[in-house]
Amino acid sequence: MVKDKEQHPIKEKKLLVSLIWNFSTELKLIFMALLVIFTLATLLPFIPSSFSLSTSDFRFCISRFSSAVPVNTTTTTEVLPEKKTATELERVLANGVIKRTFTGYGSAAYNFISMSAYRGGVNTFAVIGLSSKPLHVYGHPSYRCEWVPLDPTQDPVSTLGFKILTDWGYGRIYTTVVVNCTFPSTTAVGGNLILHATTGDPDRNLTDSIPVLTEPPNSVDFTLYSSPKKKYDYLYCGSSLYGNLSPQRVREWIAYHVRFFGERSHFVLHDAGGIHDEVFEVLRPWIELGRVTVHDIREQERFDGYYHNQFMVVNDCLHRYRFAAKWMFFFDVDEFIYVPEKETIKSVMESLEEYSQFTIEQMPMSSKICYSGDGPARTYRNWGFEKMAYRDVKKVPRRDRKYAVQPSNVFATGVHMSQNLQGKTYHKAESKIRYFHYHGSISQRREPCRHLFNDSRVVFENNPYVLDTTIRDVGLAVKTFEMRTIGNRLLRTRQ
Amino acid sequence: MVKDKEQHPIKEKKLLVSLIWNFSTELKLIFMALLVIFTLATLLPFIPSSFSLSTSDFRFCISRFSSAVPVNTTTTTEVLPEKKTATELERVLANGVIKRTFTGYGSAAYNFISMSAYRGGVNTFAVIGLSSKPLHVYGHPSYRCEWVPLDPTQDPVSTLGFKILTDWGYGRIYTTVVVNCTFPSTTAVGGNLILHATTGDPDRNLTDSIPVLTEPPNSVDFTLYSSPKKKYDYLYCGSSLYGNLSPQRVREWIAYHVRFFGERSHFVLHDAGGIHDEVFEVLRPWIELGRVTVHDIREQERFDGYYHNQFMVVNDCLHRYRFAAKWMFFFDVDEFIYVPEKETIKSVMESLEEYSQFTIEQMPMSSKICYSGDGPARTYRNWGFEKMAYRDVKKVPRRDRKYAVQPSNVFATGVHMSQNLQGKTYHKAESKIRYFHYHGSISQRREPCRHLFNDSRVVFENNPYVLDTTIRDVGLAVKTFEMRTIGNRLLRTRQ
């Protein structure tokens, strides 16, 4: 029996061991398999092999190398050339010819500098920016627009961008470009607008894909584009203000025009360095009343275009406020709009309603010689437009026109008028509306009057002038208006 | 005993199960731990987290995204701005002002396009390339040169690059730039020359560091720069050849000038598309004899400069062969150099030895009207310069001068002469050396003669011409020379 007793344990141990062994073998196999799989998966991304580039790698890199470029968004698509070093720049061909190569480094001018993009209808957008001037003169850059709906069930749509060079002939390193992106059909609200800008390099096709607009869902009401009701009747789009401007002149200009254009008007000024602290103080009361908006555009100074990129700036203003105003005015802060006494701005604009655009004739005023009819002391205290009352009668008035447009019909603003609009343009409005130009008065920080006269006709520096008190005559009304509207906060403003 | 027998199995089963359980539990734990670790390791690279960039990432990406840039060599140093998306392009400041931003994308014009760099002495180098034209007109690009010796015990040295704009006023998108890098003291042979090119962006300082020259150890013998002995007496640097050139005209030109300049001369031609197969065939015998070298510069067409970047090309030629020739000539392949019969090119050049440069006056020939003195059949078989023997006597000869230089004194070539050289320039060599210009003859692929005359004076299209057989008279000698030198290989050459 003892044997029996002894036999059993042995058998059982064998059984036990074999069972464990079999069991753990299976585990080992599974475990080894997993080890191999995970190890491969772990090492794969670090192997610099030539497997095709996945989107994730792409974004991963872009996010680190594109200078001022949003993450995951700008890509330059091209055939990658083989690497060259200084010593590999040439080779001798079989026929003895020395094959030379040329390698480009860095960027002297960006392909596109994005300022803004705005929806302009159910299926159309405008992109405003700068691009290399000689590229547009000698090269063949092109633009393609892509709308990527936020709704993943909707496919992106693409269309050819229509390029408008609004300051043609004026650019320096950069020229202003407005790209009109009109899609074949309605683009649902909510999405990203991508501008694909191609330089047209004959050898390689360099394309930058630029996210120019991100439209949140339900952020747009399409009735905006059809409704005749606008937030403002008149909106002023100023061009780039720069230099050491006179606070007093700016004070006079804004007071005059806020009164002139009335309650339902708004003024957009662009600060390229000209709205220094003292100038900002004369604007502050009007900003607080919601009559003035200032855009700080100083950063554009980095990009050398025409006069502080004024064409880009006014085109941004056009498209930004395009459906917020019935009429938009484009003139400078040394210019004063005027309508005959029997008229009002309202009556005049109603009479011009059939036109998409009209140009405004200049009345050139001297900003040196002044009318002293009120006596020297009073003259000194007078506002600029009260004393600078002599009009240059020699200067050709047709020169240097300014203009107003019904912006919903306009696709881009231009030099002295828009050349990209639908509808009629009127050039004979001089009997209804004009502007008085005090050239150079805004940028001198001192008493403007260099010489005083009180005759109705004077000749100064061999140039004939006549006394024209048109603007002077409303001086009191403007001062009173300012006092009533913002009080005496600006009384101590300096020249 | 039966009980006993029955008890055992139960105990043993319990033991067995528990053992297996414990064992497999441990395995499970290890296995789960490994699973977690490897899963993390696997997913890590794909998580767009903001861990800092390692060099390997850097190279990994650069090699995929920098356009024509050698790996690890070009870096654009700048402060990286915070990422922006389309919606973050503006913000409202405390005072109500809307702060606008501007974002640049891509490259419309490279900061610098490197063609070549050559050592020009014990401590001086020349770098030849292209750069954005408006950048140089409106901007303030600058260049710094750095010499990095291969010998690690020697420190790199740095100097300001002197920029020469040799085609000032002629560029389009690109202009030719020659950067003279002269270091304060001798730069030991063997090293890398790095050109640091800065665009001068007022906001950011974008600098591209470009490896322009790799000089192997012991690859230069400094006596080269001081020795009066040169490989050639006369070297011709041709400008960019393009268009559908006439093989026969090129055949005539090269035969004439190889004979004219003699044994110790060499001809460097630059193919911008003009040396097509038929033209190459007329050059091949001379290439095989080592009298002609052709550089294929077609790749420069990608970069839109003045006339196929001819100024870059001739400056490359100047610096490449600067110490290989006593004199260098710059003129075109429709122009034939001539010295009076009593002189030889050798005697003339010796008489001009005191000058670093002299200009050559033009004799404008008609490439339409021909001299038929040999009778129509013979005239037809004549070479171009044998029959185009009528000289325009109205055209102002001073126009369109060509020139020759002693290159060791010259730092850059120019339009119709070099303006960057040391030593005297002579403009009154017309009695010693002239060139006959058959304008337009080279680029028409047909019999040039449109009208035949045999008078000594003719008026054609209201313009007076005189018979001038200066070049015509050497026709037989040139043909004989060609036959003797390369045999009859070119007999069947077509217009």
UniProtKB/TrEMBL annotation, chains A, B:
Predominant localisation class: membrane
A single GO cellular-component term on record: membrane
Swiss-Prot/TrEMBL keywords: Glycosyltransferase, Membrane, Transferase, Transmembrane, Transmembrane helix
Subcellular location per the Swiss-Prot or TrEMBL entry: Membrane
Stretches that traverse the bilayer: 29-47
GO MF term list: glycosyltransferase activity
Keyword Acyltransferase: no
EC number: 2.4.1.-
Coiled coil ranges: none
Topology of this chain in the membrane: Single-pass membrane protein
Top EC class for this record: transferase
Assigned protein family: Belongs to the glycosyltransferase 92 family.
Name of this chain's protein: Glycosyltransferase family 92 protein
